[in-house]
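The pair is listed for reference:
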Amino acid sequence: MAKRPHTKQPRAKRPHGLPSKEQVLEFLQSADGIVGKREIAKAFGLKGQEKIALKKLLKDMAEEGLIDGRKTAYHRMGGVPKVTVLRVLEIEDGEPYAIPDSWQPDDASPPPRLRVIENKKGKSRHAALKIGDRILARTEEAGSGWKAHVMKKLPARTEGLMGVVELDSSGKGWLAPIDKRVRQSAMIADLGDAQEGQLVLAEPAGKSPRSGVKVVEVLGDPLAPKAFSLIGISKHGIPHIFPEAALEEAQLAAKLPLSADQREDLRHLPIVAIDPADARDHDDAIWAEPDGKGGFKAVIAIADVSFYVRPSGALDREARKRGNSVYFPDRVVPMLPEVLSADVCSLKQGEDRAAMVCHLHIDAQGKVLEQQFRRAIVRISANIAYQDAQAQIDSGEADEGLQNLWACWKVLAAARDKRDPLELELPERRVILDDQGKIAEIAIRERLDAHRVVEDFMIAANVAAAKALENKTAPVVYRVHEPPSREKLVALKEYLATFGRNFALGQVITPGLFNRMLKDVTDESEKAQVMEAVLRTQTQAYYGPKNAGHFGLSLGSYAHFTSPIRRYADLLVHRALVDAYGLEQPKPKSDLPPATGLSDRDRNDLSKITDAISQAERRAMEAERDTIDRYVAAWLASRVGETFDTRITGVQSFGFFATIEGLGGDGLVPVSTLGAEHFRYDEAAQSLVGESSGASYSPGDRLKLKLGEANPLTGALKFVPLDSDGNPIEPRGARPVPKRKGKYVGGKRGRPGNIRHQGKRRR
């Protein structure tokens, strides 16, 4: 039997004898740990008949609705047990909030909301709880509300609470997971109105995993248009429904008048917004003209979101929670309601718009001589697609405005080349849908000079914002990309040694060092492998209030300023600029909060919100990537059996992963399918090596593979290796599963393991 947590008695001396109802409630409120009948009796010194009377008293209090729980663990009605299981409901500013996992009060009593206090000592700054996580926690009711102190994180009751209904031969229902990492289906105890093949939402049917799940909502055809993005939203817990208060505040904000008297009037400038043809919002627009000395004067106009979204309002709270917009092929989950994100804040042709503008004076070498930030009113002269802008330049038919932009870009590009930022070829997949929402094409986005023009103007504005705030000694939300860690550099050195290439650890590590390394590799196959290794060496970028530079861009100070419609980090930078440059606007005649600068909590401590938005960014990236994988698998489902040109993206002891060239989508090739030869895993070279032939499979290798499986629900692909004649390799025969105690190293239970790990022991 599990040991009960110790209940610490309050120090104040309690009267002995049968307590009153008020005294019981006070004790439940003040005692730590689990409080049951035994603890109450001990606290009041009850014996014999008094214990029997206490039992009746507690029963009466429960019937009166004063307390809740069982005889071994009571708590005040409307409260929470001292030690209980909670479920994380939402994340605000990086702080988790949870509700009791099995709250079953009447409809008039909503579940209490507890602020979760994590003990982060010794943990990674990013090892935070996520929405849906279950925890065992010690709770307390403080003056400001309920708090929960994490004792331990609990495993999920069941995996894949969104899935597809499957029926076995006996008619029993099973929930097939939509997550490729979940290997087993969950038994459905209550199908409700769901039918076989439908995508459903489910929840645990009981406290034990053996209870299975019950269907709570039928979502329909899992392969229907918009189903894949719906899966991504649900799986990653992305907030996608705006509270009424936020929508109402957005409507109020949209009606705010613009006055040229309170802003710099730039409506006479032919500022243009160059975006993707399918852009859903327009954050930025640019203009430039020669200064007569070989340099340029430029204006980067960015939507003035801080004018509409003010600190501490309902709209701001929801934006903080979302952190960023999330983009799927068929929809966008915006950070802001559409009345702002797609209309009032979006820089549209011919419309007067509020903007935060960055004025730059750039010399002939691309160096910024002067920078200034102001609030302005702009009227965009044109919204142009990248392809159209490029076509006008290439044909020589571009107007003076576009020609000036390209000329200014050339001096910015020269300065960029001198900086020598990291240059990695990272193609971006694009899913093109038809009018019915079905896949028309999956292609790699074309990389044009028009993209580079806009990108370099945005980088210049982002650097200017960071430096401007530094010059004003104001708070800065930096975009940080730290240099590779020594551990990763050591791994890279060991990997390059397998190619006979030397990599000295004592030298100064710069992006240019990696660029030169890649230029020195002439063999395309080897170059792809080295590029994969360099990419794995890089750290993940994040937001933070402390500057550590941006390694990839080779910049000492960098912030995000240019996309406040879709990134909360940029909105914080705008607010900091409002404070630093004295750009506060007169208080509006509305119910909106008055200020547009930083809130006191952000001004005093940016770390909480920067941690939170960094986590939200990773959540969005995972959801977008998973959804694209599902679209790719759906696109390939009708092409199972075809042979594709692929490239190996990763190697493990159990096999390797490969992606289809020009299309994407990672698929597994199990080591057991590579033939009768035994392959050992060389960890240093990150390769599978044949023990007799010496044949190897390494990241970056290009080879032809046959598509064996494509599962649109999970996004998983499986490839079949081919021999030199293009025929499938005969899989290795199954070996008997060894009988031994402990965890079996290899395949699933009942299946043979593939190979034993031959490299260094992982610790």
